[in-house]
Amino acid sequence: MTGRPIEAHVLAAALRDARLAPADDDGALEWLARPEAALGGPLAAEVWVFDSALTHVLLVRHRWRGWVAPGGRVDPGETPREAARRELFEETGVRAELHAVPAAATVRSYHPDWPATAGISYVTVVDRRTPLAAEGGQPAGWHQLSEPWQGWFSDDRPRMRRCALRLSTLRPGL
Q1: Residues 156, 65: contact at Cβ < 8 Å?
Q2: Nearest to residue 71, comparing CAs of 34, 33, 43?
Q3: How far is residue 43's CA from residue 9's CA, in Å, rounded to a whole number?
Q4: Structural contact between residues 124 and 49, judged by C-beta atoms closer than 8 angstroms
Q5: Tens digit of pLDDT for each residue in 105-159?
């Protein structure tokens, strides 16, 4: 899985969002700022969807990655934020506004045989009663942040818990 060149406006949007993210995990900002980053691609985007109590996160069951946040590859011409919104809708049927500040920026591999990919994790809060329309063969469901789940990215749950804690300090009364 080699990347195609990343368009200048897309890379600029990814850098802008990575700089805003309170968590730069795995050196993502440095990865995106490399002179050769535009040649390497691909970019990924995902959404951490929390319920209004900030105790649950919406995940999708990938066929071999297990439970993961809705997301995927940034398509040509779209920004990571646009890709995150698109992937959220495609994988869960949920349309939601993403917070202005992303949750995290990461560099990780989505498959043992693939190169590292820079990704931006966006965040939104929706009512858990929102109807879900999962993508075929990839069910979606709410998971408690306090309990582990089987997924490819073992660091996601603690990262999501830290994000939910930050959100709770920004939104008293939740």
Answers
A1: no
A2: 43
A3: 13
A4: yes
A5: 988 876 777 777 888 999 999 999 999 998 888 899 999 999 987 877 778 888 9
